[in-house]
UniProtKB/TrEMBL annotation:
The keyword Manganese does not apply. Keywords: Membrane, Transmembrane, Transmembrane helix. This is Zn-dependent protease. It comes from the Bacteria. The chain crosses the membrane at residues 6-22, 116-138, 144-164, 193-219. It comes from Cytobacillus oceanisediminis.
Length: 226
């Protein structure tokens, strides 16, 4: 019983802690203006043009921290605060999303692999628990195994996301430094924003792996008792 309590505490506390780190870092550095006073949209456009990605658009999108790169329309979308903001945080996040655009242009292997996994990962996320619960209640270990296989695909997607995100952040740092978008102490502050954001992906992957391992152990117990 104690082991389960610790397990559930971990899968609840770790993501919450990661979210708090992100919100804390973003809240702090969104109030720190960058020395160049470039808006997030200008940062994104400058990096894109410097890399010859003139065809990639930069658009404003609704929501808070909804920033992303859309590989289908070749568009970097920034939330209003980051699109219009002149802060270190806005520059960091804009540069990170452009990092994904550069990955896409250069056909970065892990990004290609992640894109290929999207249909399978979506299927796994939507149906794995249905199959697992049916298997548990019906005592059908084969159904549980099928659900675990579907879940494993979703877990692989989350694990593959880690190198994709860290690589995009590394690219972002290289670009903002080499193009003079940030200066002096801003490099350290920019890294803090990017590292905090990366923690959410690390936490999600860690929780997903733990859950998958737990289900595998349960499945192993079911097959032994059959």
């Amino acid at each position: 019983m104690g082991g389960y309590l610790i397990y559930f505490a971990i899968i609840i506390i770790v993501p919450l802690w990661a979210q708090m780190k992100v919100k804390g870092a973003y809240s702090k550095y969104s109030k720190v203006p960058s020395s160049t006073q470039m808006r997030g949209a200008e940062v994104a456009r400058k990096i894109l043009d410097a890399n010859g990605l003139y065809q990639v658009g930069v658009e404003e999108t609704r929501g808070h921290l909804t920033d992303h790169y859309d590989p289908r329309s070749k568009t970097v979308r920034l939330s209003a605060t980051n699109y219009h903001g002149h802060s270190v945080a806005a520059a960091a996040i804009a540069a990170h999303e452009v990092g994904h655009a550069i990955q896409d242009h250069q056909e970065y292997a892990f990004l290609r692999f992640r894109h290929a996994l999207v249909p399978v990962a979506n299927l796994g996320s939507n149906f794995s628990w249905i199959l697992i619960m049916i298997g548990f209640f019906a005592g059908m270990s084969g159904m549980v195994l099928l659900g675990i296989i579907f879940m494993a695909a979703a877990v692989v997607f989350q694990v593959i996301t880690l190198p994709v995100e860290y690589n995009a952040s590394n690219r972002a740092m290289d670009q903002v430094v080499s193009l003079g978008i940030i200066r002096n102490d801003e490099e350290r502050e920019t890294k803090k924003v990017l590292n905090a954001a990366a923690l959410t992906y690390v936490a999600a992957a860690a929780v997903a792996v733990l859950e998958l391992l737990r289900l595998i152990l349960i499945y192993t117990g079911m097959t032994r008792s059959e």
